[in-house]
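In this section we walk through a basic example: taking a raw amino acid sequence and producing a predicted 3D structure, encoded as C-alpha cells. The instruction is simple. Fold the sequence below.
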Amino acid sequence: MNFNPAKPMNTRLLMLMLLCLFSLAASAETATITDDFVAYIQRAANGDNFGLRADGRFYPYSTPQGRRIAWRQPVWDKALFANGCTRAEAEQHLRAGLQRALTELQAKIDITKLDRRQQETLLDFAYTEGVGNLKTEFVSAVLARDWDRIVNQHLYVRYAGHAPDHARNKAFAGRWSIR
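The resulting C-alpha cell sequence is shown next.
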C-alpha cells in the first residue's frame, strides 16, 4: 500500500493508526521514583546500615565526602549528632533529595521519553554525582542504550575520594546484571 497525501485515508486505517499512537503515548514511561529504586539506593549507599545504633536511630558517620547519615546523606541538622534520626526521617530526606535530583535532571533531559532502566541509571548518577558532574560520554551511552559501552569503558564506575566506590559499583552491576 502506498501512501498518497492527496488521497483521503481509509477511516479504518486512520483509526488504527490513531489507536496505535495513543497506545504508545499511554505506555510511555513516566519519571517516578519507585520504592524498589529507593531500596536499591539504600542498599548501594549503606547496605550494612552503618551508623544505625541499638536504639534504632541513625547517627552521623565519617566518609571521604564528610559527615553523612543513614544512606550517605549529608547531615541536614546539627541536632542529628546528638539525637540521630529514625529510618522514616532518613528515608523522607532521601526521597526529597532524589526528587530534587530528578527535577534538575528533567530540566536538562526529557527523561519521560526514556525507558525505566535509562531513567533510573541517569537518576542514580545524578543523585550521587550531581547533574552538573554527569560525564557526557556516560549520558550519551545511556541515551543510546549502549550498555556494552558503559560496561566495557567502565563509565559506570564511581569513586569515593580517590578510590573506587566498590559498594555502589557492585550494587549497580548487580541491579543491571553486569558481569
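Looking at the output, two observations stand out. Confidence is low (pLDDT under 50) at residues 1-29. The domain at 31-175 is CATH 1.10.530.40 (Lysozyme). In the next section we compare this with other chains.
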